[in-house]
Design brief:
Pfam families: Ribonuc_L-PSP (PF01042). This protein is of the alpha+beta class and 130 residues long. The chain contains 2 helices and 6 strands.
Length: 130
């Protein structure tokens, strides 16, 4: 399992600054789009619905790879917006989806691949499969 860490020398924003990855395997996901099983965007134009679906897709990959959420070392969430309120809403939705949120960053981008897509997630997952 990963171990999140912060630093007494840096601002305590209530979140981890990083994770220590134990010796072992590393799983790296490509961007996970909020697609349904037929390839359609879930919640077109709705960042909250899309975070939920992207996290569900991440859970599927974790299960298939014999990993758990506690092994997530870092999440990057891309959001097609320049609106900081939308970025904050995405962060709050992501944070609520986890019992213990791994180190994560929410980044505003210009555009994502699918029409109506506002959210995409990628992850680093540490450790040997369980």
């Amino acid at each position: 399992m990963t171990r999140s860490f912060s630093s007494p020398a840096l601002h305590d924003g209530g979140f981890a600054y990083g994770s220590r990855v134990p010796a072992g395997g590393l799983i790296v996901t490509a961007g996970l789009s909020p697609l349904d099983p037929d390839g359609a965007i879930v919640g077109p134009g709705d960042p909250v619905a899309q975070v939920g679906r992207a996290v569900e897709c991440l859970d599927v990959l974790l299960t298939e790879q014999g990993a758990q959420r506690s092994q997530i070392a870092k999440l990057t969430v891309y959001v097609a917006t320049a609106d900081s309120a939308v970025l904050g809403e995405v962060w709050q939705t992501l944070d609520a989806a986890f019992d213990e949120t791994p180190p994560a960053i929410v980044v505003g981008v210009t555009v994502l691949p699918y029409p109506g897509q506002l959210v995409e997630i990628d992850a680093l997952i540490a450790g040997e499969p369980t």
